[in-house]
Design brief:
single chain; 98 residues; alpha+beta; Alpha-Beta Plaits; four-stranded antiparallel sheet; 4 strands; globular; Thiamine-binding protein domain-containing protein; UPF0045_domain; MTH1187/YkoF-like
């Protein structure tokens, strides 16, 4: 693991059920990639190989469109560790979930 990414997809619809359905499809896609991920109330964190994560980031808006999102905002945060392994999702949050 040499990177972690946080991604937030915001379909722009007043219908909350449509928003949830689109986000669910994005989460299904992320799950299908096999990377380690963690869903929270505002964003989903992923960790793994930098190039694989960037491929996932590029695909997420397309998955949202296929699920019916013709208007969306996607926010991404990237933590890249070129020379060493960084903190994992578990390193960052386990003490708060016990």
């Amino acid at each position: 693991m040499n990177a972690s990414v946080a991604i937030q997809v915001l379909p722009m619809y007043p219908d909350k059920q449509k928003v949830v359905a689109i986000v669910d499809k994005v989460l299904d896609y992320i799950k299908s990639t096999g990377v380690t991920y963690d869903v929270s109330a505002f964003e989903t964190s992923l960790e793994g190989d930098y190039d694989q994560l960037m491929d996932i980031v590029k695909e997420v808006p397309k998955v949202a469109v296929k699920a019916g999102a013709d208007a969306q905002m996607v926010y991404v945060k990237i933590n890249y560790f070129p020379e060493s392994k960084g903190l994992t999702i578990a390193d960052k949050v386990t003490k708060y979930r016990e």
